[in-house]
């Protein structure tokens, strides 16, 4: 590992070529931009290869030097600016010979390929036969021995750009999240055409029959060999049935499907949604088509059935914030991997696991991806799901659990209450819905507490049913109602109501107040025995400032809102020259939104509380922008977190930049405000909320068994009150009490925040000199085959 101080010199004398290949995916441009800028930052010479492998074979004007300005304003564009083509020539030896010759002539020995598994396999083959290609070129007199010596080996690094998320070893491929955004926009539009639930009689809960339309919608999404898009869409919209190639339905699925749809109708549902992957098949590997399902439902059940095949809509549009950040992080990691590679290191892919950038041997990933296809062909469907990785398994298990329609006849006599605390945010309702349904499936009674801890003190508590939470996944805000007040002064009233309503455990969904409220309840256990019940806090806040979790529900939606707004603001200056925008984001003292929005919208600076800044820093930023205005890029974007500094307010920054920029640029100021808390939840927040809600109920169910003594529940150990959070790579439960040490209570933030390590990337991409990238966490290359345990032999 190169010492961080040497990073800006690491690439001197090196050349890197970047190409995009295969089907285009949103976010590829972010990866290209980061590769170019970080490459230039390290001193390397960077080239664009236009039109994928075809451009590599044809050479000439297809391989051009890239400049810093040439990748400006690329972040928000879908597809790939440098072009992509499916290339047959590169599959032939003569084609690869021409490509090798073009690279040798330009002295390029590092190749960064962004594409699917076919593109990456091709790159690896190219690298494997490199010496042989050079020998042939010398023989043919195309290159000299001296040129061959200078380019004696080729380093390859891959980034996976594929909307299907079909590449094993990576949680998310570039483009998947954006494709989900397109799909969910369509699902939301379709589902609003038929309202979700009929009114039910308040006493009997039997549906009122009405003349309203009863509709079934079938939606086919992309995924010829991988059901990821279909599966996550089904989770995110609460679909009644999903067809995925990895796990075909049982043999008499037609009957099961009809029963499921009838059962949903009887519960009061006015709309059925069926999601299909284009590669849907039955157990005998016979395709299941959209028309086949449509005919079944309309003929057998007489339901008004409509089908929609989404097609290329999914590839289009603006990349989501997640894909831009993913692409940017992968681009940085790819350059580092190339510059540290030796002839001995295998070709690698840079990938994401949880929130960590990791490197994996390219061919191991390709092998496991092929093994999935083999497993499906041989009818080993459980193996296929397992080989897809942990994230896919979790999605499948959550979907299977929530797809049960009939809760057990035998009840558990357990009452679990759910409360929302703090400011509302998108995704809270998804967590409530999945917790309610997961609880009912376990045979528990679920109770809804309205209006936060105040509602718990005032007795605003009532049972909540399966049908009541129908359609909640896609709703923003908080349907239960929420308040910021802590239990504090009402603790006695709260303990009385816990006894009165016979509440055996509590799910608290919210932000920093939920965490503080949970701590107050735990502390009060000494005095009030009623509070000795298992509790779980699910972090849900746009600020992402809850200790114990790297992500919180709602932050992704807010981030996308900020990013879209920044895009529009930047675009507003497209005709005017030399303008700097100063934008204030939410987040309290937590700089997560400002930093991540800075990465996803290509900001020149993001001021946050966690990284103190002084007048000297502001001066440097102004000088930096004045220099930038001398180039072909005439726009500047500055983000400031709301509580970044008491004295250097957004207005102060606006005044400072306006004064110092006089004659060079003018300024505009925008405070984004509460629009960041609203909106329909993004696919990530729906999925995250759904998994968190279900997981919390399963954990409470186990805890309640542990804590049941002498006919009653008594839980007073620290591990009976936890925060459920995403840490690095997995969802884990951490005792509230143990998180106190890592909390800055005054500023309402955790003391350690993982995303601070991404700040240098923001500065390098904005062209600041002498920035250190924190490489302390870059692990040695990990092996994926050992993890899946499927492939024997070889080095494990």
TrEMBL record:
It comes from the Eukaryota. Mg(2+) binds at residue 117. GO terms for cellular component: 6-phosphofructokinase complex; membrane. Residues 1-404 are annotated as: N-terminal catalytic PFK domain 1. Residues 16-337, 415-699 form the Phosphofructokinase domain. The active site is at residue 164. Residues 415-796 are annotated as: C-terminal regulatory PFK domain 2. Its EC number is 2.7.1.11. The keyword Cell inner membrane does not apply. It catalyses: beta-D-fructose 6-phosphate + ATP = beta-D-fructose 1,6-bisphosphate + ADP + H(+). One of its GO terms (biological process) is fructose 1,6-bisphosphate metabolic process. Allosterically activated by ADP, AMP, or fructose 2,6-bisphosphate, and allosterically inhibited by ATP or citrate. Substrate binds at residues 162-164, 215, 222-224, 278, 306, 312-315. Pathway: Carbohydrate degradation; glycolysis; D-glyceraldehyde 3-phosphate and glycerone phosphate from D-glucose: step 3/4. Keywords: Allosteric enzyme, ATP-binding, Cytoplasm, Glycolysis, Kinase, Magnesium, Metal-binding, Nucleotide-binding, Transferase. ATP binds at residues 23, 86-87, 116-119. It is an enzyme of class 2 (transferase). GO terms for molecular function: 6-phosphofructokinase activity; AMP binding; ATP binding; fructose-6-phosphate binding; identical protein binding; metal ion binding; monosaccharide binding. InterPro entries: 6-Pfructokinase_euk, ATP_PFK, PFK_vert-type, Phosphofructokinase_CS, Phosphofructokinase_dom, PKF_sf. Beta-D-fructose 2,6-bisphosphate binds at residues 484, 541-545, 579, 586-588, 668, 674-677, 748. It is found in: Cytoplasm. The keyword ATP-binding applies. Catalyzes the phosphorylation of D-fructose 6-phosphate to fructose 1,6-bisphosphate by ATP, the first committing step of glycolysis. Belongs to the phosphofructokinase type A (PFKA) family. ATP-dependent PFK group I subfamily. Eukaryotic two domain clade "E" sub-subfamily. Belongs to the phosphofructokinase type A (PFKA) family. ATP-dependent PFK group I subfamily. Eukaryotic two domain clade 'E' sub-subfamily. This is ATP-dependent 6-phosphofructokinase. It comes from Oncorhynchus kisutch. The lineage of its organism: Eukaryota, Metazoa, Chordata, Craniata, Vertebrata.
């Amino acid at each position: 590992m190169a010492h961080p101080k040497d990073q800006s010199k690491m690439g001197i004398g090196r050349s890197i070529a970047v190409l995009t290949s295969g089907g285009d995916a949103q976010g590829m441009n972010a990866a290209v931009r980061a590769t170019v800028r970080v490459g230039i930052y390290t001193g390397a010479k960077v080239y664009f290869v236009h039109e994928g492998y075809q451009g590599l074979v044809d050479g000439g004007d297809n391989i051009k030097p890239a400049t810093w300005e040439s990748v400006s304003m690329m972040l928000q564009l879908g597809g790939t600016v440098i072009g992509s083509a499916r290339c047959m020539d590169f599959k032939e030896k003569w084609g690869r010979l021409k490509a090798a010759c073009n690279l040798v002539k330009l002295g390029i020995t590092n190749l960064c390929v962004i594409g699917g598994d076919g593109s990456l396999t091709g790159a690896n083959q190219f690298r494997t036969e490199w010496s042989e290609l050079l020998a042939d070129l010398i023989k043919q007199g195309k290159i000299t021995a001296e040129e061959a010596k200078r380019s004696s080996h080729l380093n390859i690094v891959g980034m996976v750009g594929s909307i299907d998320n079909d590449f094993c070893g990576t949680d998310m491929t570039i483009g998947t999240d954006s494709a989900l955004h397109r799909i969910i926009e369509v699902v939301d539009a379709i589902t609003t055409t038929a309202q979700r639930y009929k009114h039910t009689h308040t006493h009997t809960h039997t549906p009122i029959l009405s003349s309203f339309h009863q509709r079934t919608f079938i939606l086919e999404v992309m995924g010829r060999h991988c059901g990821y898009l279909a599966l996550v869409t089904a989770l995110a919209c609460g679909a009644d049935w999903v067809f995925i190639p990895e796990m075909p339905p049982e043999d008499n699925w037609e009957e099961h499907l009809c029963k499921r749809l009838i059962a949903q109708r009887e519960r009061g549902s006015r709309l059925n949604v069926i999601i299909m992957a284009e590669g849907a098949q039955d157990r005998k590997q016979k395709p299941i088509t959209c028309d086949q399902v449509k005919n079944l439902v309309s003929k057998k059940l007489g339901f008004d059935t409509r089908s929609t095949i989404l097609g290329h809509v999914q590839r289009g549009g603006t990349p989501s914030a997640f894909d831009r950040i993913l692409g940017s992080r992968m681009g940085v990691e790819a350059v580092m991997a190339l510059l540290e590679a030796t002839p001995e290191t295998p070709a690698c892919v840079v990938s994401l696991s949880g929130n960590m950038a990791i490197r994996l041997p390219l061919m191991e990933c390709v092998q496991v991806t092929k093994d999935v296809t083999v497993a499906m062909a041989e009818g080993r469907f459980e193996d296929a799901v397992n080989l897809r990785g942990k994230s896919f398994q979790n999605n499948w298990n959550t979907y299977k659990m929530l797809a049960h329609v009939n809760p057990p006849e035998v009840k558990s006599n357990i009452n679990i209450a759910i409360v929302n605390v703090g400011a509302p945010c998108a995704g809270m309702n998804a967590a409530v819905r999945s917790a309610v349904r997961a609880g009912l499936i376990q045979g528990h009674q679920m109770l809804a507490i309205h209006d936060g801890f105040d509602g718990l003190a005032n007795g605003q508590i009532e049972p909540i049913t399966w049908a009541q939470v129908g359609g909640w996944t896609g709703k923003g805000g908080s349907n239960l109602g929420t308040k910021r007040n802590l239990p504090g002064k009402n603790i006695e009233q709260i303990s009385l109501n816990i006894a009165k309503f016979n509440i055996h455990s509590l799910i608290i969904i919210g932000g920093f107040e939920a965490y503080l409220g949970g701590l107050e309840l735990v502390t009060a256990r000494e005095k009030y025995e009623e509070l000795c019940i298992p509790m779980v806090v699910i972090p849900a806040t746009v600020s992402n400032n809850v200790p114990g979790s790297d992500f919180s529900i709602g932050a992704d939606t807010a981030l996308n809102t900020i990013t879209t707004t920044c895009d529009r603001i930047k675009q507003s200056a497209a005709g005017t020259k030399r303008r700097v925008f100063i934008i204030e984001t939410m987040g309290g003292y937590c700089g997560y939104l400002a930093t991540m929005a800075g990465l996803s919208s290509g900001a020149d600076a993001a001021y946050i509380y966690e990284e103190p800044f002084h007048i000297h820093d502001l001066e440097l930023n102004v000088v930096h922008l004045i220099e930038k205005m001398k180039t072909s890029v005439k726009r500047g974007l500055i983000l400031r977190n709301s509580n970044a500094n008491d004295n250097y307010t957004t207005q102060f920054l606006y005044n400072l930049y306006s004064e110092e920029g006089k004659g060079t640029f003018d300024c505009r100021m925008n405070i984004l405000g509460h629009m960041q808390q609203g909106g329909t939840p993004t696919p990530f927040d729906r999925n995250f909320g759904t998994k968190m809600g279900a997981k919390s109920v399963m954990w409470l169910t186990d805890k309640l068994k542990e804590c049941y003594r002498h006919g009653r529940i008594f839980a007073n150990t620290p591990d009976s009150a936890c925060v459920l959070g995403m840490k690095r790579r997995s969802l884990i439960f951490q005792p509230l009490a143990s998180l106190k040490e890592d909390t800055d209570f005054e500023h309402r933030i955790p003391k350690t925040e993982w995303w601070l390590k991404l700040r240098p990337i923001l500065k390098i991409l904005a062209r600041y000199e002498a920035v250190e990238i924190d490489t302390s966490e870059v692990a040695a290359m990990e092996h994926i085959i050992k993890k899946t345990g499927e492939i024997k032999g070889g080095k494990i």
